[in-house]
User: Fold this.
Amino acid sequence: MRTLTTSAHLEPDTTVRLSVFAPAPEDEGFVSLRVGGEFIDIALIARPGAADALRALARVAEEAAAVLDRITDTTPEGAP
Assistant:
């Protein structure tokens, strides 16, 4: 990954979208993963060879979702 540090809050209405850019004579093609909200979109661009990095991202995202599920299941009603 090239260097960029930013933060954004995922909200329940956050949108995600995959766009595929097929190979062309002058380009090998790539995919774009867009995560967006009302005011900002973050696009992750992945070229051939980056599949393992995307799989690692998916695994960590799934793990984070499971942690949030556990937090929700153990948080008393009305607690922040």
